[in-house]
Amino acid sequence: MTQLTDEELIRQTLEGKQHAFAELVRRYERRVSVTIRSVIGEIPQDETADIAQDIFVLVFRALGSFRGESQFSTWLTRIALRHCYRESKRRKRKGALFVRFGFGNNDDDREPPEERFAGTSKTDAPIIAEERKTAVMEALKKLPEEFRTVLVLRIVEEMSVEEVAEMLGISTGTVKSRLFRAKDKMRELLAGQDVEVAIDA
Fold it and tell me: For the segment 120-153, what is each residue's pLDDT rounded down to a tens digit?
């Protein structure tokens, strides 16, 4: 059975077919969850689910305005980012960025982000040492929100610099600058921890 495109699912949703939007939610729920944690930080899973639900409600209500000028995933993530920035300000907190992402779609088996940032992969070692994970996560907590967001989109979501720039409405030069400064800051924070920061701009 051929998988429907996002555009076909959007058209069916606008025609009143509820299962079509449910499929869009299933397809992008992990991306939304990652975005929430990139901006707001470490929060209970039920709170993440509530915020994700709010985001998808916003997406559903705005779906008729989607013109296909960008990919649906890009448009959706912009809505998610705006909502998360508002929520972050409301909470007046900048919690930890990462926990192990246990969301995942059926076809998504990415490594935990703390392993990515610490330069440890499945091929390098079966599991990153607990003290190294803790050091990385504590360093990430101290990064400015704008740096954390760029890191999540670039490293965890594996977007290109150009895609991150489009997503955030900034130049590619700004993206590269934030990544460079984030890497330097991470190295500074992890000095003496024997952790290599694997962040490629």
Answer: 554 444 444 556 667 777 777 777 878 878 877 7
**Rounded Cα distance, 128 and 124, in Å:** 9
| Per-residue exposure over 41-71, b if at least 16 CB sit within 10 Å of its own CB, e if not | bebeeeebeebbeebbeebeeebeebeeeee
**C-alpha span between 178 and 174 (Å, rounded):** 6
What are the residue ranges spanned by the domains of the chain? 1-95, 110-201
Q: Is 148 exposed, middle or buried (0-12, 13-18, 19+ CB in 10 A)?
A: buried
CB-CB neighbours of 197 under 10 Å = 19
Domain 110-201: give its CATH code.
1.10.10.10
Query: Could you identify the residue written with the tokens 């926990």?
Result: 99
pTM: 0.59
